[in-house]
Amino acid sequence: MLSTSAYASGFGLRDASASTLGLSYAGNAANGSVPTTMVFNPATVNDVETFDFAVSNTGLLPQTSGDFTATTAAGTPVSGNTHPVDIVNTALIPSLAVRYRLTDKIAMGLQFSTPWGMITDYDKSVTRYYATMSDVKSANMMAIIGYQLTPEFSIAGGLQVQYLKGRLAKAIDIGTITYGLYHSTPPRFPNLGQTPGGNDGFVELRAQDWATGWIIGAEWKPTPNLTFGASYRSAIYNRLKGNEYFTLDAVGQAFSAGSGMFKNGAASGKLHNPPVVTLGAKWDIDSQWSLMVGADWTGWSIVKNLTIHSGNPAQGDDVTLFNYHDSWFGSVGLQYKPTEDWRLSIGTGFDDTPTDTEYRTPGIPDGGRYWLSAGVGYRVTQNIDLDLSVARLIAEKGNIKLSMSEPTNAASYRGNLTGTVNMRVTLVGLELNYHL
């Protein structure tokens, strides 16, 4: 259940329902036709007749490239690849959902999904003092109970249990640190031939955490052909714990021996998942046509920074500023049923980014995304449906301008980094639904 790439805003993953991907997820908070929409609004659990389940998989096929220039904290050019490609890897994003009706008024559901995740890889790139690899994987289980208050109005709530695992890696410009010490008055480090940008160390953090949250939602059907839905998914406060591992050359080993820094050991950090509000509406125009609209708000402003605290008392905290702001996603979709067995869908949307140029990092080179999607569904038997969806995401350029003047960058000797990341993503989703 572990996702390996991010394609929604920030490090969010929007996919949990390949059957509604063709609608650009429009109106999912009001669309209980399939169980996988419970992650958008738990109240759709009340739309189950007797029992159903769905298995969804979405393949991620990205095309990414970057163009960067960088200087060390000493002002010298950073060597390395200035035009990295294939920054984001291909991935498969799974989801599983089950609904069961207990009584005429009570239904329950379970959904396993991957709401958060990212991976970027800048092998031997000039971005290395900010990021060489950023990998976050998640597995989330929601247990939901729903209640039909009236024939028109239902509510639901549930518990989230989430596992989050991270691997974050970057280079350390030990050449600049020790060069400055050697040329200080008086010299405080021996001349080992070190040069800025020429004696890199490398560090990798591996950490994980279990945490919990909650979700609530409501669904209102004022008429048989009109549905409104709304939900709130709480923030989850992850406190990752693990270890950091260093790789050092002779200069780095000498500095580590003298300073006590850069030694393998325990480390921890906080990486919060933001709250999400989801709104949706579905209008069945007639027996063949349906119009869906949807929007969601993500409270990214709780993500201010990533602070890695080392268990080594000789080593200070490593701080990366994010300073995210809240963001919106909106989409509209249209579904056509030419026969009882076939469904055709199209959709479009826009996903705003929570990042700004002066804080955007190569680890999460996020930009706003335009969505174009289409899908086809077929009723194989009375109890089995198959859906195939395709979407194309066109991202705005992720401009990056990180400065040594920022105190956290100066403290880590990261230098200056400017550049742009270009991204295009194709999504291919396949979902099987079984219902009684």
Q: What's a concise summary of this model?
A:
The chain has 436 residues and is mainly beta.
Jot down its keywords:
mainly beta, 14-stranded antiparallel β-barrel, 436 residues, disordered N terminus
Task: Outline the fold blueprint.
Layout: H1 18-21, E1 51-71, E2 91-101, E3 106-113, E4 118-121, E5 133-148, E6 153-172, H2 174-182, E7 201-223, E8 226-233, E9 236-247, H3 250-259, E10 265-273, E11 276-284, E12 289-298, E13 305-310, E14 318-321, E15 327-336, E16 342-351, E17 369-379, E18 384-395, E19 398-402, H4 407-411, E20 416-435
Antiparallel strand pairs: 1-2, 1-20, 2-3, 3-5, 4-5, 5-6, 6-7, 7-8, 7-9, 8-11, 9-10, 10-13, 11-12, 12-15, 13-14, 15-16, 16-17, 17-18, 18-20, 19-20
Strand content: over 45%
User: Residue ranges: pLDDT <50 for 5 or more in a row?
Assistant: 1-7
For the biggest sheet, the summary is: 14 strands, antiparallel, barrel
Instruction: Summarize the amount of helix as a percent range.
Output: under 10%
Termini separation: 26 Å
Rounded radius of gyration (Å):
24 Å
Strand order of the largest sheet: 1-2-3-5-6-7-8-11-12-15-16-17-18-20
Please tally the β strands and state the result.
20
Return the average pLDDT rounded to an integer: 92
Structural class designation: mainly beta
Shape: elongated
Helix-strand topology string: HEEEEEEHEEEHEEEEEEEEEEHE
Instruction: Work out the helix count.
Output: 4
